[in-house]
Amino acid sequence: MSAPTLAPSTRIAFIGGGNMASAIIGGLVQRGLPAAQITVVEPFEAARAALRGHHGIDALPAASAALAGSDLLVWAIKPQSFLAAAAPVAPHVGSALQLSVMAGIRSDAIAKATGSARIVRCMPNTPALVGRGMTGLFAGPAASAADRALAETVIRTTGDALWVQREEQLDAVTALSGSGPAYVFYFLEAMQQAGTELGLAPEQARTLAVGTFAGGAHLAAASAEPLATLRERVTSKGGTTHAALTALDQAGVKAAFVQAMHAACVRAQELGDEFGR
After folding, report:
1. pTM for the whole thing?
2. Beta strands at 119-123 and 133-139: parallel, antiparallel or unpaired
3. Which of 91, 214, 225, 269 is spaced 20 to 30 A from 7 at the CA atom?
4. Torsion angle, CA of 203/206/207/209, rounded to 10 degrees?
5. 3-state secondary structure at position 33
């Protein structure tokens, strides 16, 4: 599903101008939102220079009255920076819809710090940088249908999106897709290493590993069949794939992988407890 075009009059402000903010800004500009309608607060000069070079946006070093009149405020900073960053921002944007891409910071903490109960939280991932992101969204009870539509339109400029019904489910989204690209890279590293040990050049092993992951994911997306069925179709008893999967099962890889995502979910909950109260 492609993202609809935003109204040119929409004004969007970003607190934080790093990679995720830049990915969203790039998507917004591509879909017709004038750069003049985007305001960014970014304290680091290098990040401001990158925004200027990539998107023609002169970011502000600190919050100011220039934020007033924003229809949407996107929180794109580290969760541990939120409370300090919110204090100078809140006087200018209390009436705006708040869209948070911060891990762990809960809606009640955002409402308390900003004075706005109109909140949508989301958890994107780094493939958003190339327009292939997967983002989970949750809307607070004060967010209207129009608020949800605006938030989803903005997020879909970076890829696909999925709504969850309960806020605590965002911790699971964080563990699964938010951290997920790192799991993919982890397995790709292992595949490249094995390919190299088996006699391929590192570049060959990388090309084969990346192409296989991308193709497998595309096949899964195109098929309505259970993932187990797709796996079984590749696995002939006594064949090479069966030997590989047997070795993985004997090493407890699947159980360890599931346990790892539980650990990521617990950490997301801890971030909310630590920084979002």
Report:
1. 0.88
2. antiparallel
3. 91
4. 160
5. coil
